[in-house]
Amino acid sequence: MPSVTALKATRRGHVALHVDDAFVAAVTDAFVVRHGLFVGRELSDAQLATLVAAAGAERTLADAYRLLAHRARSCAELAQRLRAKGHDPTVVTDVVERLTAEGLLDDRAFAAAFVADKRRLGGWGAGRIARELARLGVADTVAQAALARAGAESDEDDESARALQVLTRRGPARAPLDAARKRAYDHLLRRGYDPTVAYRAVGEWSAGGAGDETVTD
C-alpha cells in the first residue's frame, strides 16, 4: 500500500508531498492538516487519487485568485489563462463555477466596468468596446446590455463629445486639411465610433467648432 515518505518544506512556502519516495504535489500546510497527512501514513489507491485531485484543484484555485487579484476578468478569459498554465480543463471548469457562485466572477459586472472604463479613460467607441468584450469571451447579449445601460445614462451628444475629445488630444488639424480629416476619421473608426459620430466630430475638430466639414473618403 502506498505511504507518505516525506513532507518537505519548499522555498515558496509550500510542502512537497512524497509518496513511496516519489514527488506527488506541492501543497499548503492547511492541505496537510486537512487531509491528515504525516510521514508513514498509508494510503489506498483511491485515497491517493483523491489527494492528487484535491491538490490539483487547490493549485488551480490559488492561481485563479492570483489572476483576479491582478485585475478583473471575464469567466472565459480566466478559464483560458488557467488552461494556458497547464491546469486540467475539468478542474478549471469547476473552479470557474465555484468563483461565479461566490460572486467573484460576474460577466455582467465585468462588462459594465469595462464599458465605463474604456468610454471614460480610453476614449473608445461602442464598436471597439463590443469587439474587445467578444475577444474576452463575454457573450454578445451581455456586452450589448452593458453598452445599452451606459448609453441610457448618457446620450448621443456625449458620444460625440468623447469623440471630439479624442481628436482634441491629437492637437489641431494641420494642412493639408483633407488628409488630416481622413486620418482623424479613420482614427475614430478604429476606436469603434459610429461613422456618423466620427463624421460630426471630425467636422467640429477641423473647423474649430464652427460646424461640420466634408470628410473625404
Walkthrough of the structure:
The structure is a single chain. The protein is mainly alpha-helical. Helix content is about 60%, strand content about 10%. It has helices spanning about 30-35, 45-70, 75-85, 90-100, 105-120, 125-135, 140-150, 155-170, 175-190, 195-205; strands at about 5-10, 15-20, 20-25. Strands 1-2-3 form a 3-stranded antiparallel sheet. The longest helix has 26 residues, at about 45-70. The chain is elongated, with a radius of gyration of 27 Å. The N and C termini lie far apart (about 75 Å). Residues about 210-215 have low confidence and may be disordered.
Low-confidence stretches: 209-217
- Helix/strand structural class: mainly alpha
Radius of gyration: 27 Å
Largest beta-sheet characterization: 3 strands, antiparallel
Strand order of the largest sheet: 1-2-3
End-to-end separation = 77 Å
Query: Quaternary arrangement of the chains shown?
Result: single chain
Order of helices and strands: EEEHHHHHHHHHH
- Percent of residues in helical segments? 55-70%
Shape: elongated
Output mean pLDDT: 86
Number of helices: 10
Please give the number of β-strands: 3
Characteristics:
8% strand; mainly alpha
Structural topology:
Blueprint: E1 4-9, E2 15-19, E3 22-27, H1 29-34, H2 45-70, H3 75-84, H4 89-101, H5 107-122, H6 126-135, H7 140-152, H8 156-168, H9 177-190, H10 195-206
Antiparallel strand pairs: 1-2, 2-3
Helix pairs in contact: 2-4, 3-4, 5-7, 6-7, 8-10, 9-10
